[in-house]
Design brief:
The chain has 14 helices and 14 strands. The chain has 393 residues and is an alpha/beta fold. GO terms for molecular function: transaminase activity.
């Protein structure tokens, strides 16, 4: 007979999952309720309101889909795309590419705009595509590209997309809770996210929100939604007043999301954004003090996910294994063209703290020194501390 599984205690500072709040884990051990129990339905109502606050929207169709952020992506595309629709997808990393793949599988003709990984799209690029493809039904892009650490500006693009009378769809998986999303202010027609990044809950639910323009598209569909499980024409009734049974909800994951959102809103959105910005700046300053080069230019760097080039002569995997085995710290490796060439360090939600910044800088410094990399010992921590000192003056 096998023994109970006992995972090692890691510090999760990669691209996700992130560190989970202790009280979130406690909530997951609470007794199960039925998915139509009045108490659980009340929890769903509270979840909807809290998600609206974090998305900064009044959209009635705001809910948490079962599954990870990828389920949120599929939910948006299978509901807003009918076979033959033309859609413009902006690709500057793995998850833009995944959007294009999912849209194509939903039957769309995909116009894939390409940008160098680590860079962002300029409004002029989007406008050129819209003029070239006036029959496109939507433009979709990634707000926070997890594979590169690039932070995409949204407002100008949203304005021009709407001037062309198209839907504007945004991936907010890594940005949600860590930087402002502001769905209504920006004019995002549909957005999706995940629980395992800046919300600091385990992976398993995907917050989504749909505005009136997106609802009109759903209501005017001529074909059934490709996916039964993700069909919002049915699921919206489960989350609405009718409470029509559709699927057995992941009860404990909803407990977890409720607690994570409660913690975030108790901290305050602005405070959370400022916290992520401060610790991200401290980490990035510390990395540069080690003479490491960051992938994304400063004005487009995410605060909660930093991508740093592996220095010449240093083996990517050797450093990551050292961090994991000697220091119990997980960071991420590069994807696509950055595979073996970059590290991804996450400071998301509960994991975004001064203690974690200093710990990962010191561990990375130690591991690099062991590999023969030349650096000034202690310079990274000193540089990060100067950022903290300046922040309190």
């Amino acid at each position: 007979m096998s023994n109970p599984f006992k995972p090692s205690q890691r510090l999760l500072l990669g691209p996700g999952p992130s560190e989970v709040y202790p009280t979130v884990l406690e909530q997951m051990s609470k007794p199960l309720l039925g998915h139509l129990d009045p108490e659980f339905l009340k929890l769903m109502d509270e979840l909807k309101l809290m998600l609206q606050q974090v998305f900064e929207t009044g959209n009635p169709l705001t809910l948490a889909m079962p599954g990870t952020g990828s389920a949120g992506m599929e939910t948006v595309f299978v509901n807003l795309i009918e076979p033959g629709d033309k859609v413009i997808i902006c690709v500057n990393g793995v998850f833009g590419g995944r959007m294009a793949d999912v849209a194509e599988r939903a039957g769309a003709e995909v116009i894939s705009l390409q940008q160098t990984w680590g860079d962002v799209f300029a409004p002029e690029q989007i406008e050129e595509a819209l003029k070239k493809h006036p029959d496109a039904s939507m433009v979709a892009l990634v707000h926070a590209e997890t594979s590169t650490g690039a932070w995409q500006p949204l407002q100008e693009i949203a304005d021009l997309v709407h001037r062309h009378d198209k839907l504007f769809v945004v991936d907010t998986v890594t940005s949600f809770g860590g930087v402002r999303v502001a769905v209504d202010q920006i004019g995002i027609d549909a957005a999706y996210s995940g629980t395992q990044k800046c919300l600091s809950a385990p992976p398993g639910l995907a917050p989504v929100t749909f505005g009136q323009r997106a609802l009109n598209k759903i209501d005017q569909r001529k074909h059934k939604v490709q996916s039964w499980y993700l069909d919002l024409t049915m699921i919206r009734n489960y989350w609405g007043e009718d409470r029509f049974y559709h699927h057995t909800a992941p009860i404990t994951m909803n407990y977890a999301l409720h607690e994570a959102l409660r913690i975030l809103l108790e901290e305050g959105l602005d405070n959370s954004f400022q916290r992520h910005a401060l610790h991200g700046k401290a980490l990035q300053t510390g990395l540069q003090a080690m003479k490491l080069k960051l992938v994304v230019e400063e004005k487009h760097r995410l605060p909660m996910l930093t991508t740093v080039y592996v220095p010449d002569g240093i083996e990517d995997m050797a450093i990551r294994q050292s961090l994991l085995n000697r220091h119990q710290i997980e960071i991420g490796g590069g994807l696509g063209p950055f595979k073996g060439k970059a590290w991804r360090i996450g400071l998301m939600g509960y994991g975004s703290s001064r203690e974690n910044v200093l710990r990962v800088l010191e561990a990375l410094e130690s591991s690099l020194l062991d590999q023969g990399f030349s650096l000034k010992q202690g310079a990274a921590a000193e540089a990060a501390l100067q950022v903290y000192h300046a922040a309190v003056i």
